[in-house]
Structures are given as C-alpha cells and as structure tokens.
Design brief:
Layout (H helix, E strand, L loop, with lengths): L1 H20 L7 E6 L9 H16 L5 E6 L8 E7 L5 H18 L6 E5 L2 E6 L11 E6 L7 H16 L4 E6 L2 E7 L5 H18 L5 E6 L2 E7 L2 H9 L6 H35 L1
Antiparallel strand pairs: 1-4, 2-3, 3-5, 4-5, 6-9, 7-8, 8-10, 9-10
Helix pairs in contact: 1-7, 2-3, 4-5
Bound molecules: 2-acetamido-2-deoxy-beta-D-glucopyranose (NAG) (2 copies).
C-alpha cells in the first residue's frame, strides 16, 4: 500500500519534472494543419494511418528523413507520409521530436485524412493523396520579430548570413556572422535543385518581409529559412512566446500535473502522520 503510494509519488514527481524542466526547444510547436476530409473510425484507413505514424517514429531513430507509403489491401485506403528532422538534431532527439509531432497531430487533427505539424526540430506530414517528391512553396508560416531598425552594420551582417544560406548547398544549412544566426532546411524528398529553389524563395521573402526585424521565420510547404539576432528566438520562446499558441496546452498540463502531484504529496504526508500517531496510540 505504502509502496504503491510512494511509486505514484515518484511517478508524478518525475512527470512534473520532465514536463516543466526537460521539454526541449526542439519540441516547440510552430504550426499545424489538417485536411477537411475525415476517415471513419475502425476503418482500414485508420489502421493504415496508425501503422504509418508508428513507422515514422521508428524510422526517426536511425534516419533524419524518410517517406513511407502504407497501402494495405486496397489502394483506396493508401496513406502517404514523411518526416524531416532538423539536420543538427541527434538521432534520439529526432525520434523524440517526431513522436511529439505525431501526438500533436493526433490532438490537432482527430480523424482527418491528412495533417501536418512543424515543431522547432522536426516536421511531419501525412495524407491519403501523395505529395511525396512534389515541391511546395506555399507560405505556411511567416513571422517577423519586432523591428529593431537595423543600422547599416546589422543589416549588412544579416544580408551576409542570408546570402551564405542561399549560396551553400545541402538540405540543412546554418550560417552566422556577428550576432546574426541563420538556418535553412529542406524536406528530404526534394531534389537538390528544388531545394535550392525553395530555400532561395524563403530567403527572398525573409529579406523583403522581415527587413528590419530582429528575427524572421519563413516556412514554405517543403522548406524553411530563419534568422535571429542576439538569440532573438530564444528570447521569444522563453519569454514572449511562452503562453502563446502552441505552448498554452502544455503549460496548463504541466500546472495541472504539478497541482496533482502537490495534492498527492499532501495526502501521503497526512496518511504518514496518521500512521505515526496511531502507532504511538497503541
Ligand atoms: C481521400 O479521402 C477522402 C475522404 O475519405 C476521399 O474523398 C478522397 O477521394 C480520398 N482521396 C484519395 C486519393 O483516395
Ligand atoms: C521514398 O523512400 C524511398 C525508400 O526509402 C526512396 O527510394 C524514394 O526515393 C523516396 N521518395 C521520395 C520522394 O523521397
């Protein structure tokens, strides 16, 4: 009895701890979207989708990109999916991120045929229509930080970083100069030329639309480019961004778990006291 309570206490403590303290920046929610069509529960499509999502998470333990197709017994129940981790994410972190994105998609898109979720460290997308290997430059998220009215030096640094990102090849690109850091990532299903074209487009938008901002994010359908000055994103996430959009639910959850753990501790403590008192009474 006491052992069970102790176990519960330990579990709730570590749950609180892990939600509050260990939530990695890679898990920050950036955007998500769902298709209109829904599948019926217990349908072959649902079971194909579940097996696809499980396979995506498994695959993310050894590869930073993969695409999958699950057809099952009938072509009409086929589901297509992919994930892409940010190129600098280590393998266990990639799998953890994809797993997080999959559960996010489940909350966001219950029973819809298709969905997509972008966290800071990874992207997942699935649908019943194939989109694999198709370039997609639709603007999905564009966000510019507060204007800092760059002097000529600051804006020159940013342009140099953006130019470096645009010029370097590869699916994952990082650059930095002075206080400015930049990162770009393509989805692994694009060809080299498509990646170049997509990132070029994202950077053009960043330059023109976030010209005087201290950070900028442009996420297109299959690639993104971001820059930040003086760690502007870190500030944004830790302070201004906390409590907004994606983190709201997790924060509330953490608070509830924390409260429950507090109540559990109190109950166990009271029970413990009572036992000591009873023991003395006998
Ligand atoms: C995708 O699913 C929707 C709804 O179930 C259906 O109307 C549509 O025809 C499907 N598309 C394909 C390519 O199977
Ligand atoms: C999907 O994955 C398969 C094998 O993993 C690969 O051969 C194929 O090129 C990939 N397709 C795309 C569009 O990335």
């Amino acid at each position: 009895m006491a052992k069970t309570k102790l176990t519960l206490l330990i579990i709730s403590f570590f749950t609180t701890f892990s939600v509050v303290c260990l939530s990695s920046p890679a898990d920050f929610f950036l955007y998500g979207g769902c298709t209109q069509q829904r599948y019926t529960s217990n349908s072959p499509y649902e079971s194909n989708l579940n097996s696809l999502l499980t396979s995506l998470v498994n695959s993310a333990t050894y590869s930073s990109y993969n695409n999958l197709t699950v057809v099952g017994s009938s072509q009409s129940d086929a589901v297509y999916g992919l994930y892409q981790c940010r190129g600098d994410l280590a393998m266990p972190d990639c799998a953890a991120c994809v797993s997080r994105a999959v559960s996010r998609a489940g909350q966001l898109c219950p029973a819809t045929c298709g969905g997509a979720v972008q966290l800071d460290g990874c992207f997942i997308k699935y649908d019943n229509v194939t989109f694999l290997g198709v370039e997609d430059k639709t603007v999905v998220l564009k966000r510019c930080g507060p204007s800092v009215g760059f002097g000529p030096v600051g804006s020159g640094e940013r342009d140099a970083v953006m130019g470096g990102l645009a010029g370097s090849g590869g699916y994952f690109r990082v650059g930095g100069s002075g206080d400015v850091k930049g990162v770009a990532q393509c989805c692994g299903d694009l060809s080299f030329a498509e990646c170049q074209d997509c990132v070029g487009d994202a950077i053009r938008r960043l330059r023109s639309e976030c010209a005087a901002a201290d950070y900028g994010d442009v996420f297109l359908g299959k690639c993104y480019a971001r820059f930040s000055t003086n760690g502007a994103h870190a500030y944004n996430y830790n302070k201004a961004h906390a409590g907004k959009s994606g983190n709201e639910g997790e924060k509330t959850f953490a608070i509830i778990v924390g409260l429950l753990a507090g109540v559990a501790i109190l109950i166990i403590f009271l029970a413990f006291l009572r036992r000591i008192c009873e023991g003395h009474g006998k």
